[in-house]
Inverse folding.
């Protein structure tokens, strides 16, 4: 059973896919496109290629836990994914994942330009790791 985490953004969408055991984030990718249809097309290719059985979509909450316009956009995208792929979609609180991803990449010695190209994939991996950890702990 493989899970796919999605850090959906206006211009960049981070993807992380679990390993076959469903315990670890394995494959990561960033889709560089502002076009929803292109993003959904690539997601479909990855779902098929890796045999993904569930999706975890980052839900951008405000720091106080309230939902705003970006959350509504993510909820709508989640509904589109459910209808398009027929897979369960879990909405996952993504607060601080992008900040943490930047810090991870900076500590790994990546310059700002290199961080910008991969930060969304790292954020998706953090979303997936959090989800998988919660799932294991019941």
């Amino acid at each position: 059973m493989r899970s796919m985490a999605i850090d959906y953004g206006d211009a960049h969408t981070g993807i992380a896919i679990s390993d076959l055991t469903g315990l670890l984030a394995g494959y990561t990718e960033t889709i560089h496109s502002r076009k929803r249809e292109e993003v959904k097309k690539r997601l479909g290719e990855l779902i098929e290629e890796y045999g993904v059985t569930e999706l975890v979509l980052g839900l951008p909450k405000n720091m106080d836990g309230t939902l705003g316009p970006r959350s509504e956009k993510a909820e709508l995208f989640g509904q589109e994914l459910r209808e398009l792929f027929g897979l369960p979609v879990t909405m996952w609180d993504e607060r601080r994942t992008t900040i943490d991803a930047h810090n991870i990449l900076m500590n790994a010695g990546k310059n700002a330009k290199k961080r910008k190209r991969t930060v969304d994939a790292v954020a998706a991996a953090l979303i997936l790791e959090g989800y998988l950890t919660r799932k294991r702990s019941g």
In short: The chain has a mean pLDDT of 92. Residues 2-137 form a domain with the Nucleotidyltransferase; domain 5 fold (CATH 3.30.420.140). Strands lie at 2-7, 12-18, 25-32, 52-59, 89-93. The helical segments are 36-50, 69-85, 97-107, 112-137.
